[in-house]
């Protein structure tokens, strides 16, 4: 487990086809977690021109911006976002070392990931918490 004060928190990247959705989910996750800005969270939504889609360049830049040495958890919304992140991981040099694509629901997983990362948990624990969000029942 990382110490919260040592600057080595797991970073979170939220990849959506929409810049507005990625930014809003990042803001909501940080706000609901009570973690504020202490957990490095970066949205990577849309394309460089502001259109709907995904951008390998935006994803790589977001991952670099949240890397504090404890790993980077990447959560995605839909199909091509997943494929883009998988392609970046396969290339091997586009994303920070210890970057992981997490299979989790986008909104609930983001909240769980940020809350867990704020405790200083390691990448395995952050990924597990985000994935466990699939089991959250609403009724």
From TrEMBL:
<dbReference type="GO" id="GO:0047324">
    <property type="term" value="F:phosphoenolpyruvate-glycerone phosphotransferase activity"/>
</dbReference>
<dbReference type="GO" id="GO:0009401">
    <property type="term" value="P:phosphoenolpyruvate-dependent sugar phosphotransferase system"/>
</dbReference>
<dbReference type="GO" id="GO:0016020">
    <property type="term" value="C:membrane"/>
</dbReference>
<protein>
    <submittedName>
        <fullName>PTS system fructose subfamily transporter subunit IIA</fullName>
    </submittedName>
</protein>
<dbReference type="InterPro" id="IPR036662">
    <property type="entry name" value="PTS_EIIA_man-typ_sf"/>
</dbReference>
<dbReference type="Pfam" id="PF03610">
    <property type="entry name" value="EIIA-man"/>
</dbReference>
<dbReference type="GO" id="GO:0019563">
    <property type="term" value="P:glycerol catabolic process"/>
</dbReference>
<dbReference type="InterPro" id="IPR039643">
    <property type="entry name" value="DhaM"/>
</dbReference>
<dbReference type="InterPro" id="IPR004701">
    <property type="entry name" value="PTS_EIIA_man-typ"/>
</dbReference>
<keyword id="KW-0808">Transferase</keyword>
<feature type="domain" description="PTS EIIA type-4">
    <location>
        <begin position="9"/>
        <end position="139"/>
    </location>
</feature>
